[in-house]
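Aim 2 progress update. The chain analyzed this quarter is reproduced below.
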Amino acid sequence: MSFYSLSGLINFITSLSMTLLVINKRPDLKKYIFLNLSVAFWSFFYAIWLLSNEFAYANILVRFVFTGMVLVPISFLHFCYEISKKEENRILIAINWFFACFFVAVNFVSDLVIKEISPILDFMFWPRAGILLPLYLLYFSFNVFLGHSILAKNYSFNKKLKWIFIATSIGFSGAATNFFLFYSIKIPPYGNILTS
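Predicted structure tokens:
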């Protein structure tokens, strides 16, 4: 098992453990549970995909990885509203869900988001950016930025939001190291482990 696959497995175990802990202790934090399940989904398929040595299998797994990549930013935004005790902007959330459904659907039926998978560095199969991936990156960045701005505006009232802001900034920064290879920028996703 490679470091990268192991990082996916650690992220999966951590997210699933947090989900079970929160379900047991604070079942009212439904959007936090959704966020952890989204990260667990992404991490599970990430770990398996990196162990794959068959093209067809890896190609399907990459589509599931990307589905998790779509769910994480919107679930993070939901969580930021929930933990800050702020009412969600329903129009913004509806537009976000439209884009989330669009990206997931397009991901499974075309090469517009992920053009192909091919070898790079030590990876047998890594996704390459399709023409719509920049739009996804905008969606990702917008949700992560908006979520963090909600936390930042409210952590003077609630100090735990400051720590959540710091932790999620580190986690998203680490996860974002996966994007370099999509564009053939030969920087390995060492930061992926920081998602935990």
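DSSP finds six helices and two strands in the chain. The CA atoms of residues 34 and 75 lie 6 Å apart. These observations will guide the mutagenesis experiments scheduled for the next reporting period.
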